[in-house]
Write a structure and sequence with these properties.
CATH superfamily: Aldolase class I
Largest sheet: 8 strands, mixed
Bound molecules: iron/sulfur cluster
Protein name: Anaerobic ribonucleoside-triphosphate reductase activating protein
CATH topology: TIM Barrel
Structural class: alpha/beta
CATH class: Alpha Beta
Number of domains: 1
Order of helices and strands: EEEEHEHEHEE
Radius of gyration: 15 Å
Strand content: 15-25%
Pfam families: Fer4_12
InterPro entries: Aldolase_TIM, Anaer_RNR_activator, rSAM_sf
Number of helices: 3
Number of strands: 8
Helix content: 10-25%
């Protein structure tokens, strides 16, 4: 069972994609300095069912290219049907995980995967020193350079 806050349409988190982004609650990693501590409580938000996802996909039909989940990998059985539902409708899928790897079963339903916990002194995807990686799972290539600012 996964809960999530209301989704947002985002343009930058997955380069080249218009994503419906869900902040899933209940992340167990408790990174120091996490910007989303209000999402740690698994009871926060509302139950994220395939029906709820479908409602938003219908609302934004024709506008989206991707569905993005910030977390949720800790309940694989709840996340898998959501990923499959998105793909059945021709959408790509992305998971932002704080872990360094996720199961092969989840990866089989993903087009993009962000790995790595938040480590303040290394920074996020916009840092060239980050431990985090956003990977296209088709090419295996890192997409981090899309987040780097010119200096
Ligand atoms: S993985 Fe992300 S959401 Fe989870 S505690 Fe770390 S920074 Fe916060």
């Amino acid at each position: 069972m996964l809960n999530a806050f209301e989704p947002r349409v985002v343009l930058q988190e997955v380069p080249g994609e218009v994503s419906l982004a869900w902040l899933v609650t209940g992340c167990p990693l408790a990174c120091s300095g996490c910007h989303s501590q209000d999402s740690w409580d698994p009871a926060a938000g509302t139950l994220l069912t395939p029906e709820r996802l479908q409602g938003w996909l219908t609302r934004y039909q024709g506008l989206l290219t991707c569905v993005l989940f910030f977390g949720g990998e800790w309940d694989r059985d709840a996340l898998l049907p959501l990923l499959r539902l998105a793909r059945e409708q021709g959408l790509k899928t992305c998971l932002y995980s704080g872990r360094d790897r996720v199961s092969q079963t989840l990866m089989a339903e993903l087009d993009y995967l962000k790995t790595g916990a938040w480590v303040a002194h290394l920074g996020g995807l916009d840092s060239r020193h980050s431990n985090q990686r956003l990977i296209c799972l088709h090419s295996g290539g890192s997409l981090n350079h899309h987040f780097w600012r010119r200096s």
